[in-house]
Structures are given as C-alpha cells and as structure tokens.
Amino acid sequence: MVNAMHRLKSLLSQAGIRQPLIIFLIMRGFLSLWAVLALTLNPLPVEPDETLRPYLGEFPLTEGAAGLLLGPWQRFDTLHYLRIARQGYTVDDSVFPPLYPLAIRGLGGLLALGAPPTAASAARLLAGLIWSNLACLGSLILLHRVAAAELGAGLARRTLVYLVLFPAGFFLFAAYSEPVFLLFALGSVWAARQGRPWAAGVLGLLAALTRLAGWTLMVPLAYEYLRRRDLNLRRLDRAAPAALLPPLGLAAFLGWRQWAGLPPIAWVYAEYWRQQAGWPWADLLAAVETVLNGQVTFVLIFNLVCAGLLIAATLMVFRRLPPIYGLYLAALLVFTLVTSSQGRPLNALSRYTLVFFPAFILLGQLGQRPWVNRLILYPALALFLYFSGQFFIWGWVA
To answer: Which of 12, 269, 353, 374 has its Cβ near the most Cβ atoms within 10 Å?
Structure first.
C-alpha cells in the first residue's frame, strides 16, 4: 500500500501526467455542471419526438442522478453506438466500425448484470462514457508527451488547452468514437516516430476498426518506415508489412459486412446518410455556393472556417514539424473531404477536426504570442459554451 501511494505521488509529480489530469478533471466537472444548467434554462419537451429526438430504442434518461449526469450525453451518434451494443448492426448503423460499440457492449453488460431495462440503458451509456473519457485522458497525456518532445515542455500544456476548448472539444468527453480514435491514431504516429513499426501498425489497425478514416495512417507510417531506411527499398525488412495493418483493418470490416449480407457501404451512406464520395474540393465548393445563395447557418460558417484552418495548418505543419505529421494531416484531410453530404456540406467537420492533433500542436506553438493566445482562446471558449449547450438540448452542431 505504501509503495503504491509512493508510485502514485511520483506519477503525479510529473508535469506530463499532472497537467493533463488536471485539465481533464476540470473539463469533466465543468461539462457536467454546464449540462445541468443548459437543460435547466432550456428544458426538453415532455412529449417524445422520434424525429427531433430519436432515442433509437434506448430509454430516455431524464430522472434522478442518471438524468442529471448521463441524460445530457444521450444524443445523436451515441445512440447509434448504443443500439449496436444492444442488438447488433442494423443497415443504417453498418457504417460504424465495430471496436467502440463492442467495447460498450462488453463493459455495459458487466455494469447491467441483473438490472431492469431502464438501468441497462444507463449502464450502456455509462460504459460508453467510461471508454471515451479514459481515451480522452490517455490522449491528453500522450499529446502532452508528443508536443513536449517536438516543441518543448513549455508549449505542451497550451496545446492541451487549445484541444479541449476547441468549440467541438466537448465531444472528447461524450460517448463518441473521436477520443478513442484520437488515442489510437496519436499512439500510432508516435510509435512510428520512435522507430516501433509493429506497435504503430497495430495501433493503426485499432484506429481503422474505430473509424473508417483510420486506414489513412498507412501513409505516414509507410513514410516514416522508409525514411528510417533512407528511402532505400533494398533495406526493407520483416517490419515492412506493419504499415499495411491500418488498411487491413478497414478491409476486414468491409469483408465482414459482405459476409454478413449487409448492403455495400457506399449505398448505405447514400441511402441513409445522404453522403457520397466526390472530389476533395466538391464539398468545399458546395459549402461556398450554399453561403452565396443565402442559405447560411452558423454551423456551416464554422465548418467552412475549420476547413480553411485545416488546409492552412497542413501546409504550415510541413514547414514546422517533421513530415510524418504533415502527411497524417494531408491524408486524413483528403479522405475527410471526399465525402460529400447532400444538403449539409462539410457536415460534422468541426467534430472531425479534433483528431487532427498536429494542428493543435501547431496552435500551441503559435500561441506563444499573447495576442495570438487571446485570439484563439476567447472565441474558442464562447463557441465551446454555445455548441456544447446546443448539443445538450438536442441541437445539431456536429
């Protein structure tokens, strides 16, 4: 017991553990209080509405401690993950890779042993939040290490603050797959930087089993592997196939879908999600055209801003950070933009921005100047409060 306490104190004395933990706990506590306040000021209608507030078969958590602490997070994509965990894939849910909902199913089943259906819904949501929040904390600790190694310890804390206070940063604390994907993708790139190709490949595989975009990790992983061999193909060794593990994860998921008799994933996206593949610039042009036609929404404007910032960040990261980070951004950005959403151009781009972690490292560097720091933080905090408050009252933001 004494040794355990000593080790705990030793860990907490390290800035790379203490700072991420403090930031995580502050944000976790603040969001819980802000959710209660947002729903107090804007209470949800008592009448159910499966069009505006589709719970997809889950029991709405509106009463007692579960209603206060869990209910505000029972929203949108979370309910698709919970439905997969509860009953397996339906056709429209079959675009979500299996790792995150399987994790929810496993832990949720343990938490709900012998519980009635209402409690089982709470247990599944709690399981999703536990996994996501653990992944969020792990991502903050690892991002602190990466930022400190690449730019110096003084910039690492600012990088974390910019990430969690990004206007869509509250999704890192929600039962969404973004924090899980971020942890695996960040770990994969960092393992490659450390010369551990198999660890990088396995983490990339897990990322691809969490979100479809994970296959793009093949690009930075292959580059880093070849760079360490002076781009000489004659120096390839048994670790060369490791970079192919991320696309193998995607192929395994698509192969399983076909074996299970599910429709092609492109058809499901088009039929149920109103999305289709196109040129990377098509969705950007559609967003600009929508704005010029006067069909302006605040969310669309912010997604356009995010697109511009990600393009600029990708170009700047190639100049300021090792190439592996620029390649990660470029590959992920191209794959993200090739999806065109009918009627909702750049749909959810602000949420997807959270996994572009080198962009936040870059912001941490740029924010050394006080006026730049204020220019980033003040609007980000205001938008963070607005977007998270909208999310809690069933307002679509990402």
So the answer is: 353
CB 170 within 8 A of CB 391: yes
**Paired strand residues for 276:** 340
Judge whether 23 and 160 are in contact, CB under 8 Å. Answer: yes
Domain range annotation of the chain: 12-45+53-175, 177-266, 274-366
Residue whose C-alpha is closest to residue 165's, from 8, 373, 346 = 373
Short-list 181, 180, 175, CA closest to 73: 175
Contact 350, 303 (CB under 8 A): yes
List all residues 6 or more positions away from 24 whose beta carbon is below 8 Å from its beta carbon.
Answer: 133, 136, 137, 140, 164
pLDDT digits (tens, 9 = 90+) for 286-334: 999 999 888 889 999 999 999 999 999 999 999 999 999 999 999 999 9
Dihedral sign, Cα of residue 216, residue 319, residue 356, residue 352: negative
With a CB cutoff of 8 Å and minimum separation 6, the contacts of 350 are 167, 168, 299, 302, 303, 306, 387, 397, 398
pLDDT at 255: 97
Work out the burial of residue 335: count CB atoms within 10 Å of its CB; fewer than 13 is exposed, 13-18 middle, 19 or more buried.
middle
User: CA nearest 354: which of 174, 229, 196, 204?
Assistant: 174
Structure tokens at 134: 């653990």
Give the global pTM: 0.96
- Both tokens of residue 240? 């060369």
Query: In whole angstroms, what is the distance from residue 162 CA to residue 145 CA?
Result: 15
pLDDT digits (tens, 9 = 90+) for 163-221: 999 999 999 999 999 999 999 999 999 999 999 999 999 999 999 999 999 999 999 99
How many helices (H) and strands (E) would you count in the chain?
18, 2
Burial 343-367 (b: 16+ CB within 10 A, else e): ebbbbbbbbbbbbbbbbbbbbbbbb
